[in-house]
Amino acid sequence: MKAARLGVIGFAVGMIGGAVLLAGGCANEQEKRGHELYAHYCSDCHGESGKQNEGFNWSSMPDPKPKDLSNKSEMGTFKDEELFATISRDMLDTTEEGGDPIGDDDFAVPTMPTFKYTLSEDEVWAIVGHVRTLHGMKMEFNVAARKTSLEEGLKTAQTKFEQAKQAYETAEKKASDEAERKSEQLKKDVDVDESAYAAEQAAMVQAKKEMDVAQIALNNFSTRPGKGVSVPRPDLTVKPAETAKLVDRGKQLYENKYGCNGCHNLAGEGGKIGPALDRAGFRLNATWIYRWLKNPQAMDAHTRMPALGLNDADAKAVTIYVSSLRAPKEEPTVVKPVEKP
Q: Which of 40, 98, 119, 139 is nearest to 252 (CA)?
């Protein structure tokens, strides 16, 4: 595995921990929400107060272990935006050969999951705000201004699209009128010259794309990206000759990209938040595994497992690998009674 870049903090999925008193006693709604989200998703690996070896899962995790979030001397060197980028990012394949290119500033710790595809942007900022309290600081990033910027960005994109659409319709009508005039003049049908309004059409298509991007960005600010998104039934057909190769690829992704071993245990090694997967091939249906990997919240709104952004190919490979896990069932140890002399 490539050396993990530790320039930014690492979070890990966790379960609800005990109550933590927020500084000041009466926290505002955003601070309360940040505390609740941290307790639900982060505390089992990072601990309630962010200290190392405090979380339920900390000692079971593969290296590198989660950082000490209570260490102000280190945590204070990171910008709010850097903390956000760590929590909300795309996962990188840290395999030494054949993995993703990883720059010096990239955060590549596979056992730290991303919440980019699970939480809204507003929720991620709430977690950043709570993390700041763990080392005695306050978040400086203006979340309200960020929302306003997204709203204004959408309005600008909508205006641009309407202008581009009007320009296209004007140019298209002009070309149609010209074709009709020539038809009357030549006494035969003349096709509309589509090249006459091709530039306006291309500009309208581009403006529509920009408007859609702006709309998605605003939606994702307050709405969880996977909410209400169902995963279609996958085609998990694999030729026998390709099965072994796909299992190997799935194992690589399981360990080196999506860090499943940070929460799940195999052969006594790995995290203990999620269920052990030694016999997953017996217990779980492959289609269910695939859908769960793609969007766990669509199947269980309260699950603590985040959606990790698996594309179809990765989801298929990990599904085939997990389906291949069929360890023999352990026989109960029979203790023979001690015979009396």
A: 98
Model confidence pLDDT, tens digit, residues 104-125:
989 999 999 999 999 999 999 9
Contact 3, 103 (CB under 8 A): no
The Cα–Cα gap between 50 and 38 comes to: 10
214-249 pLDDT, tens digit per residue, is: 999 999 999 999 888 899 999 999 999 999 999 999
Q: Which residues of 65-75 are buried (b: 16+ CB within 10 A; e: fewer)?
A: bbbbbbeeeeb
